[in-house]
From TrEMBL:
Family that this chain belongs to: Belongs to the cytochrome c oxidase subunit 3 family.
Gene3D superfamilies listed in its UniProt record: Cytochrome c oxidase, subunit III, four-helix bundle (1.20.120.80)
Provenance organism: Paenibacillus apii
Location of the Heme-copper oxidase subunit III family profile domain: 1-197
Keyword match Transmembrane: yes
Official protein name in the record: Quinol oxidase subunit 3
Function summary: Catalyzes quinol oxidation with the concomitant reduction of oxygen to water.
EC number: 1.10.3.-
InterPro entries: Cyt_c/ubiquinol_Oxase_su3 (IPR024791), Cyt_c_oxidase-like_su3 (IPR000298), Cyt_c_oxidase_su3-like_sf (IPR035973), Cyt_c_oxidase_su3_a-hlx (IPR013833), QoxC (IPR014246), Ubiquinol_oxase_su3_dom (IPR033946)
Length: 198
C-alpha cells in the first residue's frame, strides 16, 4: 500500500481516496431519502384529524437543547479531525468522546420527547401529520444512534491501533456522516419545529 505523504492522512492512499468518494455518493442517496421524508411531511403537515397540531405539541426548550448539543458536536468532531491530522491521539479521542456523549444527550432528549408525545395521545396512528413527523424524526434519530455506535467502534480502533491511514480514513468518513446529520437537523429545527410553533 503506497502512502502519499503530501496529502492529508485520510487521503494518503488511492484506496482511501476511493472510499471517501464512495461515501460522498452514499450521502447523495441519504439526501434523497431525507428529501422524500421532508416532502411527505410538508404534504401532510396540516392533516391533524382529531390529534394535536405542531403548535399544540412542540416545546421550544428541549428542541433548543437538542440543537445546541448536535451543532456543538459538529464542532467537536471537527476538532477531533484537526487533532488527528496532527497525530494527537489523546486529543482525537477526547474530542471524539465529547462528540459521542453529545449525540447520546441528543438521543436521550428526543426519546423523552417521543414518550411525552405518546402520553399526550399523539401517536403514529393519531393523524397523518403525526405519522409523517414520527417517521422523519425517528429516521434521523436512528441515524444518530447508528452514528454513536459507529463512532464508538472507531474510537476503540484508534485506541488499539493509533492514528494510521486506515483509522484516519474511517474517522474522516465518520465526520462527514456526523456533519450531514447536523445539516439535516438544521432543516428539521427550522421547517418542522420553528414553523410548527408559529
Amino acid at each position: 500500500m503506497k502512502v502519499d505523504t503530501s496529502k492529508p492522512l485520510e487521503y494518503s492512499t488511492h484506496e482511501n481516496s476511493n472510499r471517501i468518494f464512495g461515501f460522498w455518493v452514499f450521502l447523495g442517496a441519504e439526501i434523497a431519502l431525507f428529501a422524500t421524508l421532508f416532502t411527505v411531511f410538508f404534504v401532510l403537515v396540516n392533516r391533524f384529524a382529531e390529534g394535536p397540531s405542531g403548535s399544540e405539541l412542540f416545546e421550544i426548550g428541549p428542541v433548543l437543547i437538542e440543537t445546541f448539543l448536535l451543532l456543538t458536536s459538529s464542532f467537536t468532531i471537527g476538532l477531533a479531525i484537526h487533532a488527528m491530522r496532527h497525530q494527537y491521539k489523546r486529543a482525537t479521542l477526547v474530542f471524539f468522546g465529547i462528540t459521542l456523549l453529545m449525540g447520546l444527550g441528543f438521543l436521550g432528549i428526543e426519546i423523552a420527547e417521543f414518550v411525552t408525545y405518546v402520553h399526550e395521545g399523539a401517536t403514529l396512528q393519531t393523524s397523518a401529520f403525526l405519522s409523517s413527523l414520527f417517521v422523519l424524526l425517528g429516521t434521523h434519530g436512528a441515524h444518530v444512534t447508528f452514528g454513536f455506535l459507529w463512532g464508538a467502534a472507531i474510537m476503540i480502533q484508534l485506541m488499539r491501533e493509533g492514528i494510521n491511514p486506515a483509522t484516519a480514513n474511517k474517522s474522516f468518513i465518520f465526520s462527514l456522516y456526523w456533519h450531514f446529520l447536523d445539516v439535516v437537523w438544521i432543516f428539521i429545527f427550522s421547517f418542522v419545529y420553528l414553523k410548527g410553533l408559529m
